[in-house]
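Usage example:
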Amino acid sequence: MGRIQIGILVLLLALSPMAFGQTKSSAAPPPVVDWIALDHKWLDSEKNGDLDYLGKFFADSYVLVLPNGQSYTKKEWLAILRGAEKPTIQFLNPENIQVHNFGNVAILTDHTTIKGHDAKGNSLDGEFNVFRVVIKLDGMWKATGVVMNEDRTKK
Amino acid sequence: MKCTYGFAVTMVFILASGAVALGQAPKKAAVAGEDAAATIAIMDHIWLNAAHNSDTGTLEWLFADDFVEIHPGGFIVNKREQIDQIKDPQLTRNELHPDEIQVRYVSPDVAVLTDVTTIRGMNGGVNYNGKQRVIRVFVKQHGRWRAAGAGIVPIQGQ
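Running the assembly step on the lines above writes:
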């Protein structure tokens, strides 16, 4: 083997670690999450009683805190939505949705307007500022927490 | 020539080994034996102790840059606004502590807990006496847990 050939071989092998050391350029970027659509889909499902969706969308760790401080787990809240005491919601709309994305968890804040009544006919109408927590589980975003506060910021 | 060939074979072996070594994916550092739920419960106490003592240095360290908190009445504040409120000399907090801490979700880099926080004090002329139901969110950033946000609601009748 001539010296030139050996030199070429050494040069090629010297360069090969750089090729191996490169990160994968073919890795797909994470999909862009449409947080506004996610929030609307969530509330539309609550309004329309789409319990199949909510059963999948709520993580097992889900907890809902209402404006009076009462809290419900996923099991408790879905039981209310399934039961005879379920509220009737005529209007449920989130606005001014703000997103704080931390990678595998995101916090959404929004201003939610509710029009409706409970099973006894008591009005549920109100304006609320809401803190929503969603976590990424097996590549899917799921709701794990909600805190609702009556909006008194303009009063 | 024999010497040159031997040198080349040695170089080939070393460089080939280097290629294999460099081609390995970096392994994610794991914190062996970390009890994340226990750590998060302690972080909850650190958070409220710092707020109680107006220890803004600890809160700067604890709060993630994109921290967000929603207060009773629906007032939403970011990290800067929350720390400014806590160091406000008009703020009085005679009592501030969490009870009933429940870690609802924990993963290697996310934790969500609920607690009942007792507050006795005034902030901006508003009386905050009473128990509050709170969801707190923590994230692990650059190897340490930080507070990402909190939602707070007064428990009526308490």
